[in-house]
Amino acid sequence: MAETSREVWITGIGLVSSLAEGASAHWQHLAGEASPRPVIDNDRFAPYAVHPLVALDFTKQIPKTSDRRQMERWQQIGVYTAGLALADAGLAGDQSTLDRVDLTIAAGNGERDLALDARVLTALGTSEAPEPILNQELALGLRPTLYLGQLSNLLAGNISIVHKATGSSRTFKGEELAGVSAVADAAHRIADNQGDVFLAGGALNAEREDLLLGCEISHTLATGPYKSVWERNPLGGGLVPGSVGAFLVLEASDHARSRGAVPYARLSRIVSDRALRHREKSTDTATRLFDKLALQPENGRLAVLSGASGVEPVTTEEQNFLERVEQRGFKSCVRSWGSVLGHGMEAHFIAGVALAALAISKKTFYPPFDATEIEADRSTPTDRILVTCFGHWRGEGLALVESASESARESAE
Question: 90-94: which pairs have CB atoms within 8 A and are 24 or more residues apart?
Answer without folding.
Answer: 90/11, 90/12, 90/259, 90/261, 91/12, 91/197, 91/249, 92/163
